[in-house]
TrEMBL record:
Gene3D superfamilies per record: Transposase IS200-like
InterPro entries: Transposase_17 (IPR002686), Transposase_17_sf (IPR036515)
Annotated protein name in UniProt: Transposase IS200-like domain-containing protein
Residue intervals of the Transposase IS200-like domain: 49-128
A family per Pfam: Y1_Tnp
Amino acid sequence: MSMQDPFAFFITWPTYGTWLPGNDRGWVEYHHGWQLPNRNLESMCTTQMKEKQCLLNPGDREIVVAQVTETCQMRDWTMHAVDCRSNHAHIVVSATKTAPKKIRKDIKAWCTRRLKERSNPHRTNWWAERGSIRYIWNEDSLARVVMYVTEAQDRKGLER
């Protein structure tokens, strides 16, 4: 790895309809960054949804974790951590010569295929359009992110 290459990527994406533009937690507008809550915008986005929001049950989350693991193995990517919650998923992965957006796109696509096969063939929208990609530049940062993904959310008392 050269000096400019990141050590790993911390990739997060929400399920469909669970973090809409205008959300009261704030939200990220593509190419414009963090935005303040806007109830009118969130309400408008809710009315434009093509199906109900997607909340993953424990079986769905197991499917996602298994598929992320399989996809990383097949692509020869190093998966450092994976966690799937009811309304989002996290992965920490190293992949030389692969753009992080491609990693996210491929994993979301394979997870969608498996969820449609094994959980609900009628659902069309499983995931939000994009997600977050953070670059990890050293081993200390990698260790902190892996701990966050594997342990910290449970300590915050968030629903699993």
